[in-house]
């Protein structure tokens, strides 16, 4: 998978490298994301921009930490030929800086670790995973997130799972 990354309204840092590591590791736990034809856009932006996107596309008049807009159905993603055809747009992800920074401080984790978690979370949404419809789906998605984050040396954001 290739990422098209745009950074505006975030502090100085190597957000591009962080996002690329997160994407590579997420593809290790969700092989459908390892397809070289896939392209995903990732926008590091402000609460105001995410608020506007959330209002326009989700009818929710508030900012949130991460938004994801899938462009492929899961069945199409898993059957996408990796060797033949043009690039395929997987979807878009937007991260809101102020909300991410506040949540990271509240959780006592670095902004980098929290942003990594939200990128993994957003990519799994683009891959067709969800946590809204059932507890089983939520648990399955969380297990993938935890596995990807563990590979990156980031603690389980959901607490002990033992």
Secondary-structure blueprint:
Layout: E1 2-7, H1 15-29, E2 38-45, H2 47-58, E3 66-70, H3 74-78, E4 88-96, H4 97-107, H5 111-126, H6 135-151
Parallel strand pairs: 1-2, 2-4
Antiparallel strand pairs: 3-4
Family: Belongs to the endoribonuclease YbeY family.
Keywords: Cytoplasm, Endonuclease, Hydrolase, Metal-binding, Nuclease, Ribosome biogenesis, rRNA processing, Zinc
Subcellular location: Cytoplasm
Relevant terms:
globular, four-stranded mixed β-sheet, YbeY, alpha/beta, Collagenase (Catalytic Domain), cytoplasm, 162 residues, single chain, 47% helix, MetalPrtase_cat_dom_sf_prd, nuclease
Question: Mind explaining what this structure looks like?
Answer:
Its cofactor is Zn(2+). Zn(2+) binds at residues 121, 125, 131. It holds the Pfam family YbeY. The chain has helices spanning 15-29, 47-58, 74-78, 97-107, 111-126, 135-151; strands at residues 2-7, 38-45, 66-70, 88-96. The protein is of the alpha/beta class and 162 residues long. The protein has a single domain (2-151), classed as Metalloproteases ("zincins"), catalytic domain (Collagenase (Catalytic Domain)), CATH 3.40.390. Strands 1-2-4-3 form a four-stranded mixed sheet, with helices on both faces. Strand 1 (2-7), helix 1 and strand 2 form a beta-alpha-beta unit. It starts with a strand and ends in an 11-residue tail after the last helix.
């Amino acid at each position: 998978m290739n990422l098209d990354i745009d950074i505006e309204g975030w502090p100085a840092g190597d957000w591009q490298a962080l996002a690329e590591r997160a994407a590579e590791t997420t593809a290790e736990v969700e092989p459908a994301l390892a397809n070289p034809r896939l392209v995903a856009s990732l926008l590091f932006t402000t609460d105001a921009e995410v608020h506007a996107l959330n209002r326009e596309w989700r009818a929710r008049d508030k900012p949130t930490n991460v938004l994801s807009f899938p462009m492929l159905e899961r069945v199409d993603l898993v059957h996408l030929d990796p060797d033949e055809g043009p690039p395929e747009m997987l979807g878009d992800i937007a991260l809101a800086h102020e909300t991410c920074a506040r949540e990271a401080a509240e959780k006592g984790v670095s902004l980098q670790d929290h942003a990594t978690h939200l990128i993994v979370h957003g990519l799994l949404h683009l891959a067709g995973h969800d946590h809204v419809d059932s507890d089983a789906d939520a648990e399955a998605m969380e297990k993938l997130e935890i596995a990807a984050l563990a590979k990156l040396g980031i603690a389980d954001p959901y607490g002990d799972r033992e």
